[in-house]
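User: G-protein coupled receptors family 1 profile domain-containing protein. Structure?
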Amino acid sequence: MSQVPQPLDVTTPGSDVTVRNLSQGNETEPDAPIVPEYTASLQIWKYCPPVLLAVGTFGNVATIAVYKRMKWGGSAQPLFLIALAIADLCVLYSGLLPDITYHVFNFDLRGLHAFPCKTLTWMMYSSAGTSAWLLVAMTTQRAMSVTWPHRVTFHCSYRKSGITVFLIFVVVWGCQCHQLYGLIVHDSDVYLDGACGASVNYEDFWDNVWPWVDMSLFSLLPSFMLLVSNVALLRSLRRSASRFASCGTSTATEGRKRVASSMTVTLVIVSFTFLLFTFPINVSIILWHLTGEAIEDDAELTAKMDLAWAVTNILWYANSAVNFFLYCLSGSKFREDFLKLLTCSDAKQKVPTVSRSTNSRVPSSSAQQSSH
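Assistant: Predicted structure:
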């Protein structure tokens, strides 16, 4: 996700009363009318984040537990999936948790001190970018394996995948580390605590330059690459369906192909969920930057923008909370292993691999998602 705009003050129609920081406990005049869309946005911020945090925590922890207990015959997919679940947990706890303390418990966790201001913001944006690029790497690897199946061991070895995951973390978190320098806590008469924001020397870059860079590198570019990779994956699924329908195969071969097809379906579903849940916030960010100052005096339009911002943020966070359910929906192998985890049965299961003559391996039947 790109930089979060500060909510604009909403002046109620037909009145000089400004509705400010209702979630922080500041009161308005008793008879002051409140714009309905603004009230709706506050309710969304109050009730949705706790639910998403609970659901996302359960789902990502369960995903890590399922994949850690399985043997995958040398496949690197569990490495990506576990790293992705960890990145999603970081997004939820560095982004949603401060939102919960702000809107439910009436204090700004980031505004308490410069340390949480810097580190939580850095962690949220870095984790979101890491999640996006892990999904890109995983989907691209799968697209390469179906396009050049006899070179899958060379292109998608466990060692190379481990290096890829490491480089994604290092590069993405390194690109975002300027936030540790530029963010500070400002004294504010608007907030009960201080306000986490940019320093004077950093403000122009943070407000006018970095949002566009961040959106391009960690949302739009990954989305484009996911679309390209998914075209290859969808063509592979179509060819597989045709082969299954036109020719008979042995039970073992058919089982391995179905495992591979199931994993491809999972990746396609997770990728399109990423595109669906993250694209709206990009539109919202662009609208904020193009119209923010122009609509300050229009209470109704500002309230509608606040509502749109709340909805698109919740969708963006939901992207880090729903992958477990997508795995269960699209992968029978994942469902089976999750049930075995709950019942503590069959501690280790090995996924069948393709014969040595093909020099390739088939990952498990489920796989994952890439912000923020």
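DSSP finds eleven helices and four strands in the chain. The first helix runs from residue 36 to 68.
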